[in-house]
Amino acid sequence: MNSDNIILSDREILFNSLINKYGTYNLNKAQASRILNRSIPSLDRDRASSKGPAFKKDAAGNVYYPIHSIVDYLLNTQQTLESQGFFHG
């Protein structure tokens, strides 16, 4: 199979695009906030209430978001909105 026949999933395309744009597998709060179109205080509230994308903290207590968790959150949010009739095909 040559590379012209490879079909990437939405998840792979989004993941690769974010890796290419940010050059890292982990995003800080400001980067995540831009991607998700949410303010940093909103992300902070989401974390406090166990909502939003999965996150990690380093030894110094800095919060970061693995890109795969941002991608999963975006795709799951889209599916939820579609199931509620927000997007029409």
Structure explained in plain terms:
It is a single chain. The chain is mainly alpha-helical and 89 residues long. It has four helices and three strands, in the order H-E-H-H-E-E-H. A three-stranded antiparallel β-sheet has the order 1-3-2. The longest helix is centred in the last third of the chain and has 17 residues, at 67-83.
Let me know the average pLDDT. Answer: 87
CATH fold group of the domain at 25-82:
Arc Repressor Mutant, subunit A
Order of helices and strands: HEHHEEH
Number of β-strand runs: 3
The CATH superfamily title of the domain at 25-82: Winged helix-like DNA-binding domain superfamily/Winged helix DNA-binding domain
CATH architecture of the domain at 25-82: Orthogonal Bundle
Number of helices: 4
Distance between the amino and carboxyl termini? 32 Å
Shape: globular
Please describe the topology of this protein.
Blueprint: H1 10-22, E1 26-27, H2 29-36, H3 40-48, E2 56-57, E3 63-66, H4 67-83
Antiparallel strand pairs: 1-3, 2-3
Helix pairs in contact: 1-4
Give a quick set of tags describing it.
89 residues; mainly alpha; Arc Repressor Mutant, subunit A; 53% helix; 9% strand; globular
